[in-house]
């Protein structure tokens, strides 16, 4: 681990970001160039003290998970992210489809969308990044691990994941999730990450086995779905999916489908995230 160079690199990247680029006010009272340390800490989901120790070269070796969070918070490019990992004494994440870090360009698009809920997902449905509006709508999905990282796995193994979707839409969404996973297995033929996930789903869920046997295939691009939110009720959302050229990541943009939903989204923004439980609205968002 190259502590001094890591500290200098983090300071320079923090100072290079305009606050407005990541949703913070850029007012006349701001005395620091770029972001404040507490703002980086908030974006990365870590303590301010740890950010300070990193920038002063006094920290222990950060884990790959913390480095990934810092890369997202500082809007690093792929090359800058790899450099960050090298300075911290880790190998950069693989460049293949199993990589679990959102692309820098997609992160910047999240920032630009502002109050419009948007998420970056892998082709297996793992949520790699969310903007604040998406967290308000769907809950914070950053804490899932193992197979629970994947929306399709939670849907078929956790009854709570289905309970927030209207009963009349559950069969439709189940089929869509399975058809999208079937398309991913075709693109990633022989990939043990995908085949292992399918095998574990078949072992865990008779409902998944039933739908998987029907061999339906469909890549999710545009859709409309109902979110049942614990604080503001039903929200009917249009869902537009933008795929990267190799289809390994996608940007999902959610917009209100009617005036009532638009009003409820505005109420949700006013309510903010106080007492909003993590993952509370685990609606199938693919």
UniProtKB/TrEMBL annotation:
SUPFAM superfamilies: lambda repressor-like DNA-binding domains. SMART domains: HTH_XRE (SM00530). It comes from the Bacteria. InterPro entries: Cro/C1-type_HTH (IPR001387), Lambda_DNA-bd_dom_sf (IPR010982), MLTR_LBD (IPR041413). Pfam families: HTH_31, MLTR_LBD. Signal peptide: none annotated. Residues 34-81 form the HTH cro/C1-type domain. PANTHER family: BLL4672 PROTEIN, BLL4672 PROTEIN-RELATED. This is Helix-turn-helix transcriptional regulator.
């Amino acid at each position: 681990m190259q502590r001094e160079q890591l500290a200098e690199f983090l300071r320079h990247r923090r100072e290079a970001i305009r606050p407005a680029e990541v949703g913070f006010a850029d007012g006349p009272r701001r005395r620091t160039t770029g972001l404040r340390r507490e703002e980086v800490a908030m974006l990365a989901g870590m303590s301010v003290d740890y950010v300070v120790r990193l920038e002063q070269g006094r920290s222990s070796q950060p884990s790959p998970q913390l480095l990934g969070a810092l890369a997202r918070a500082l809007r690093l490019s792929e090359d800058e992210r790899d450099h960050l990992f090298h300075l911290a004494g880790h190998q950069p994440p693989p460049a293949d489809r199993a990589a679990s870090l959102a692309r820098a360009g997609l992160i910047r698009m999240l920032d630009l969308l502002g109050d419009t809920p948007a998420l970056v997902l892998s082709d297996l449905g793992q949520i790699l990044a969310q903007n604040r509006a998406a967290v308000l709508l769907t809950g914070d999905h950053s804490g899932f691990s193992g197979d629970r990282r994947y929306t399709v796995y939670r849907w078929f193994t956790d009854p709570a994941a289905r309970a927030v979707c209207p009963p009349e839409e559950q069969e439709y969404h189940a089929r869509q999730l399975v058809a999208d996973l079937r398309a991913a297995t075709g693109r990633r033929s022989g990939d043990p990450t995908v085949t292992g996930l399918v095998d574990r789903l078949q072992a865990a869920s008779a409902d998944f086995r039933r739908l998987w046997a029907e061999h339906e295939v469909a890549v999710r691009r545009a859709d409309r779905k109902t979110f049942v939110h614990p604080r503001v009720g039903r929200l009917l959302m249009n869902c537009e999916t933008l795929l990267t050229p190799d289809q390994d990541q996608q940007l999902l943009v959610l917009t209100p489908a009617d005036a009532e939903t638009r009003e409820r989204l505005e109420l949700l923004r006013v309510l903010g995230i106080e007492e909003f439980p993590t993952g509370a609205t685990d609606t199938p968002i693919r």
